[in-house]
Fold this sequence. Notes:
Layout: E1 2-4, H1 12-22, E2 31-33, E3 43-46, E4 49-52, H2 81-92, H3 97-103, H4 117-124, E5 130-134, H5 137-151, E6 164-165, E7 171-172, E8 179-182, E9 197-204, E10 207-211, E11 217-220, E12 223-227, E13 231-235, E14 238-240, E15 243-245, H6 246-249, E16 256-260, H7 267-271, E17 280-282
Parallel strand pairs: 1-2, 5-15, 5-16, 16-17
Antiparallel strand pairs: 3-4, 6-7, 8-9, 8-14, 9-10, 10-11, 12-13
Helix pairs in contact: 4-5
Amino acid sequence: MVVVDEASLVSPASFNIGAGTLNCLNCRPVVVVAGDSRQQQPLQTVQGRVSNTTSILNDHTFMEENAVRHSLYQQFCIVDKEYKAFVEILRHLQPSQQQLDKFQEGLVLCPAGCLTDEEIFRAFSRQAQTSIMTVSRAAAQRINAIVVQQLFAGKQALSDVPCAAVAGGALILPYAGMSIVIYENRYKASRIVNGQDATLLSSHGKTLILRFPNHAQAFVHPVTHYMEGEGDVTRYPMTPAYARTISKSQEQNLKHLLVFLDCPVVTAVALSPVRRKADPAVMQPMLALQLTPVQV
Length: 296
C-alpha cells in the first residue's frame, strides 16, 4: 500500500512522476490519496510569479473507474459563528472589495500597504504568541530574518552554520531561545521530523541542543545537500518558526494570527487556523483579486 498524504498540496505534474514509477511495477499496489479538497491548492511559479494551480483532489483526470472516493467529516476549530460563516463564504466565492473592506475593518496593521522592516517587527511584537502566515517561502524567510535580527541583536550565535537563508543570499544563524520548526525527516526516534516545533537551548561544537514543547530534549546536526546553482550547501534541517507559509500552517490551531498575503491565495485556508474574528490581524489591506476560492 502507498499512502499519499496532504494531497491538496500535490499537483498533477508532481503526482505523475510517482505514478510513472508505480505503473512500471509488476504488482500494482493500492494507492491511498488522503487530503482536504478545500485546503490550500498547490503553488506554481511561472516567469517569477507565484500562483495557485489545481491539486490532484480537484483534477478529474485522477477519478478513473478504478478509483473509489470516500468523503469524511471535516473538523473546524472556529467557534465564532459570524467569523465561521464568512470563512465558509470565502471557500466558494470571491467577495467584493466592499465586503472585504467591511470584514477587515480594525484588522489591518499597516493601512498604507508599504511594509518596512520596522513595521513588520512592530506588527509581530503587537501580541505574544503571534504566528505570521505568508504565501511564499521567500516572504516567510524575509520576515524570519527581520524577527531574528531584532530579537537576537548583539547576541552570540550558537553556530556559524546557518539554519535558513533569505532570497538574495542573507543567512540566518541559530541563537539560544530561537523558536524553530524542523523541515526534514532526519531522526524519527529523536523526533527530528518534518513539522516538529522546538526551541534552541545551547550548542556543543556544531551540534545544537533543542527542547520540544513537552520539555524533552534532542540533538540536531548540520546536513549537507547539493543545491542546483549553489553546489554543496551545509545547513541545519530547521528554519525559524516566527513566520510560516500557509501550506505549512494548515490544520493548526493558533492563538494569534498575522496574515501577509504576498501573492494570490485561498484566503479561507489562511484565516481558518484561529477561533474568533478577534484572533487574526492583516499586515496590509487585502484586495479581492488576491482571494482565490477553492473549487470543489
